Amino acid sequence: MTDIVPVFLIGGGGDHPEREETYGRFLEAATRGDRCRVALVSAAESPAEAEETFVATRAIFLALGAKETNFVGVFLSPGTPLTTSALANTDPTGVFICGGMTPLYQELLCQDRTWLSYLRVQGIPFGGVSAGAAIAATTAIVGGWRAQRGDRVRPILYEGAGEGLDLLDVRPGLGLVLFTVEVHASQWGTLTRLLQAIDLGLVTEGWAIDENTLLQSDAEGLRVFGAGQAYHVWLDECGELEVSIQPK
Question: Is the pTM of this model over 0.85?
Answer without folding.
Answer: yes
